[in-house]
Amino acid sequence: MTETSPHPMTSDEGLEAFRTGTVIPAHPLALDASRRLDERRQRALTRYYLEAGAGGLAVAVHTTQFAIHEPERGLLAPVLELAASTAAEYTDRSPVLVAGVCGPTEQAVAEAELAASLGYHLTLLAPYGATDLSEEELLDRTRAVGEVLPVIGFYLQPAVGGRTLPRPFWRQLAEIPSVVGVKVAPFDRYATLDVVHGIADSDRHSDVAFYTGNDDHIVGDLLATYSTGAEFVGGLLGQWAVWTRGAVRLLELARRAKNGDDQALRQVMDLDTALTDANAAIFDALNNFRGCVPGIHEVLRRQGLLEGTWCLDEKETLGPGQMAEIDRVWRTYPYLRDDDFVAERIDRWLA
After folding, report:
1. Cα-flanking dihedrals φ and ψ of residue 261, to 5°?
2. 287 and which of 103, 190, 220, 319 could share a cystine (Cβ 3.0–4.6 Å)?
């Protein structure tokens, strides 16, 4: 950790860093046993991600729990501010700050204005709270939010609150000048192709950066080059909220592999199945992703970063058999973990 930065990253610098491609963990929410915000551990998580080498942070997104957007909880502003102020401690790795925004147009615009006031560079526009909007209304919402901050489109898998969106939608989304990227996270190869080909049909296709959110297919997305010329330049992932040091290494290996490094290609392919297997356990794929967020919390708890797996919704717990699955992948894939990296620094992060 270094001195507080007097020169935080500007919006233009943040946008350029995003377009180049980087590791952006989806930031969890640290709660105590009373399900209140644990500011000490929330800051520790941010420090972990940045010192692990992440180039950005995505806050108030699905992994942070969409419930923080409910006004009566009073959590959105404090959580966004904690990440921004903690990130300002670092002068040598100013991150791209991405704020998740939700709800109908008026709410989404207000949340984007809050994020902008706190120094965020981009918004990730989630479908949460907007399920009754038509596709055209979703596009209008994007345009309105884009007047405040640049927008990352978001294809969220239906199992955790998303909806199916066809190719024409993605073409029209890409035509909006404020759209600078898309997080592709339908957990479906055919739906992923819909995004890729839809955006390819837009005159702005070269202005939209692709980020994988397909936690079940990270390596495949990072290595793929599509017939349209599209490539995934980075990842904005819940899976990268854990073992983040390894995620940074994975993205670097994938880049080297695509540049013709055969050894890097072999290394990254060796990680492919292991990472997908681990993700199935952490995200509770056996129970239709019921325990996704608590699974992330459990990994962080084992490393000492979180005190427990508590979520805002008391019913949001590990799924049946999920703990045993996490135990299994913990034993089977020790090389995916960054336990030593965390152990050497955690006392300082928690100070």
Report:
1. -85, 105
2. 319
